[in-house]
Amino acid sequence: MNYVIIGNGPAGVIAAETLRQSDPQDSIVLIGDELEPPYSRMAIPYLLMGDIQEAGTYLRKDANHFRNLNIELLVARADKVDPTNKKVFLNNGKTVNYDKLLIASGSRPVAPPITGMNLPGIYPCWTMEDSRHIMKLAKKGARVLQMGAGFIGCIILEALASRGVELIVVEMGNRMVPRMMTEGAGGLIKKWCEKKGVKVFTSTKVEAIEKSGNSANPLKVKLSNGESLTVGLVISATGVRPNTEFLKGSGIVTDVGIKVDETMQTNVPGVYAAGDVAQAQEFYTGAQMVNAIQPNAADQARIAALNMAGKSARSQGTMAINVLNTLGLISSSFGQWMGVAGGDHTELVDEDNFRYMHLEFKDDILVGATSLGLTQHVGVIRGLIQGKIRLGEWKDLLLKDPTRIMEAYLARTQGSNFKFAA
Amino acid sequence: MQRSLLINPDICTGCLQCEMACSFEHFGMINPSKSVIKVFEFHHDGRKVPYTCTQCAEAWCLHACPVEAIVINKETGAKVILEDVCVGCKVCTIACPFGTVNYNHDSGKVMKCDLCGGDPACALACPTGAITYVDSDWTGLERMRQWAAKTDSRPKAQA
Amino acid sequence: MAWHKQVLRVNLSKGTCKAEPLNMKWVQDYLGQRGLATKYLVEEIDPKVDPLSPDNKMIFVTGPLTGTMASTGGRYSVVTKGPLTGAVACSNSGGYFGAELKMAGWDMIIFEGKSPKPVYLLIQNEKAELLPAENFIWGKSTWDTEELLKKKHQDPLIRVSSIGRAGENKVLFAAIVNDLHRAAGRSGVGAVMGSKNLKAVAVRGTKGVTVANPKEFMKATIAAKKVLADSAVTGQGLPKFGTQVLMNVINEIGASPTRNHRDVQFEGASKISAEAMHEKRPTDGKANLVTNQACFGCTIACGRISKIDETHWTVKNKPEYWGASGGLEYEAAWALGNDNGVDDLEALTYANFICNEDGMDPITFGATVAAAMELYEMGVITEKDTGIKAPFGSAEALCKFTEWTAHGEGFGKILGLGSKRMCEKYGHPELSMTVKGQEFPAYDSRGIQGMGLAYATSNRGACHLRGYTVASEVMGIPVKTDPLTTDGKAGLVKAFQDATAVVDSTGLCVFTTFAWTLNDIQPQLQTACEGDWSLEKLNLVGERIWNMEREFNNAAGFTAKDDTLPKRLLTEAAKTGPAKGKVNELGKMLPEYYKLRGWTPDGVPTKETRQRLGL
Fold it and tell me: pTM of the predicted model, to two decimals?
């Protein structure tokens, strides 16, 4: 069997390894368009902080890992897929034939449609190459403006702050991480950032970027609130989009991402997709969604690979789970954190100490959650949601005191019938 | 024969010697907040329930790690954090549906049960035998895994 | 190492929290916990201070082994001048709070002054702050307080030590309760906390505890744990039966004070004993006892966890009391039961729950009810005073009195004064079964002679935990002595008093000494602590602590005249049992005791004694 995988991020790598486990003989080609060995974008903030070197971001630490597994790494970009003839056309003019194809081409940052985005000193924080540019400009004392306070934006904040730069964050939404956190949590994260000396503008857009004429801070950023700021570096973190353009005309159906079924197969037999590029059924709603997070990439890659290898594996649906460290404030969100129709919720806020807990229920089942400051046993939230565990009388207790989630979990999953504890 | 921690909450007295032993083994100090075995209290029922990682076959934590910082110890089967590789992204803490990977604020890394390399300090310290380290067949691990399977969004290979 | 060397000084008047270094010179002389905090107290307050005035101070203190793997190493004490007695008060508690305070990096907290408004102290490692308690936890029980604090600060692992309504109302025997049912119980330390407008101390500590020589310390603690496990008392009796193992034993030897010490044997003892707690109830087929439980680090696990029969009249319509909670320990079972002639196990458990819930010492409370029942039977007080018919044996009266005292209602306000003040008020001071104003625990000194001397000379008033010669006289630990004679009891009492002062200063539980001697404790201290902690030194520390406490009491106005027992015990002979015909022969023991202590016939430490002890 001849397997080709487009994209060498976590989904591509895990799929390749899973395929190799199935058969030691099959040919596996892993295509990536960056020069570095397969690495983790998630580790880039830690590289910026200086916690790790570039090698620390590599998905596999053994330099011979892929060679030992007889997985061929190909540095190229896929330009076109021809499912009829089972060929992938590369940007270097070559073509690769496949029997089965996995598209794990990931996503890329979206540049906001404003003027001046082509000026020097404006970078996304996505690739290793981006991080090198950022490290060069984000020196101690530099003024840095970050567009977007989403997941990636917040994670980079810590790295930038640790480099001693003066930080300004501009977010269109009415709070930080608006697509991942409730209003309460996002508001507290903003307050936290401000307490840490970051200037945060929410409900504010960047309208244009111009040259400022100032050599130290050569960029002038115009905001929708009328203010203009001169800065030395602009980081664009306004969101990402699945890399699907190269599939145009291939017959592979795309929407936001590539539409897949519960085996990760696309509408074209033998062609699969996984990770940031895949649009799969959501765990709770059943709606198709792109879930661009690491654990999802790992899960989908394994499912895709097993099916490609002729085994049967099905996803029970993808679920958003996020954990975020914003300048030391740890937050997480799960599933339907925004709530579902006919559900109810509870929220506990300790503004002074930046503690927050918000649970969403449907009947007596937990369907979503948002937390700030919770770092111990936080995974049980996933366990409760994904296990669709009936909370019974524990729901009433959680409505009263959501911090007792771990007790509820133990009581309802570990066999013993614990009751409400006064 | 692979061995596992067998926990019998019925005879746990809540003395927390296990938590102390765990932190002492891993951090050289007595500090239950750094223990990866934790005794939970159910006042209403007068129960104390020790709880830690079952070293599940699914290994959500391991698969979720973006930098290969969680590996399997071949002798014990334990999923072990490599501290010097872990970047502290905490994805494993939300990926583990059992809630048994925790973030350590002091080190900036995550921590989980590593079976102490095959001689778990918690079991040695337990005065009542509520925590023992026994052949895996005895642990009811299967029950646990069945439950785990129920929550599994990921593949079950049916080769 | 073992000590964090950090004291938190909280000035409630000014609302400040300040860290200061621990006086390590005093540590070498007084070790920790009871000894060390008492040293701070005697240095910092006027012995004549009104215990409930802002000038009194209150110290929460841990020992060097608190928060370590030494078995039972989870204790803390509250040291202050006690309002019930006017003597030095040091009440010791287990649970988890003490260890948590240590984990947060503090050896002790010194509270001074009085907050203008009700507050609580929140400690999260080095961060300590006073926060408003009004419209939040003030007016709440200790149970609600703990739950509300954990919720507000979103941390189920916060440990809480608090007063209930009894402490707020300055009931003179109010306790400070931590972890729902562990208490610094005696001498009214809760009233001092209430007088300072301090509702609770909530702690979360993640800093940990280190010891000087970890490897050797682990060896020493493992060896010592084995001694506990191998002992019939700490390895079997206490885990299975708890301290309640004594209910039948003490009753049989005729040393169980009954109906305010009128009798020495209680006909209903077997109905409220440890064995009875294990028995299935005919009503619901369940036993009163749910399980045993341990405090932090304890490998004995003598704690009782009980559930009240849901159909019992005390809780029939009160589901909030249907859950498991701290059950009857021997002293509580006796004080609420035998001393009042009440043999209804469920009712006693209920009264005990209420004592925990609102923070009252069940010993003093039960004994005060006993005095009230005697006054009632004598006709000195009537239903008009008490609000309910209150003859001996009335479980209804007992339970109502418990509620009223806990909530500061009706006759409960009188009971809240303790038996000494109550009996004086009604013109019968002789009915108060107290020494220095504090009520006796569960051992009648007519049947256990040594305990008479131990009570009479106890520095915090009548108490079993200042010199538990019951161990020797009844259980033969470490050697059996005859409970009915006075021979050698002076020396025995002194030895127990000094050794207990050491144990109370380590962070360990005194119950370990059913199996351990200082020989077992010394290696654990030596390997955990810096400096020399030889047996000789420890013995000296114990004696030094005892004399320091004595001198404080003397300066507070106590004299040798206060080293006595109520007339009843000295003149009314035991009516039944092995001690029949006996009174306590304190007069035979006291002079010898003073001599052994190196005190003048007036009970004052001589110059030589003071010099020898470095006082």
Answer: 0.94
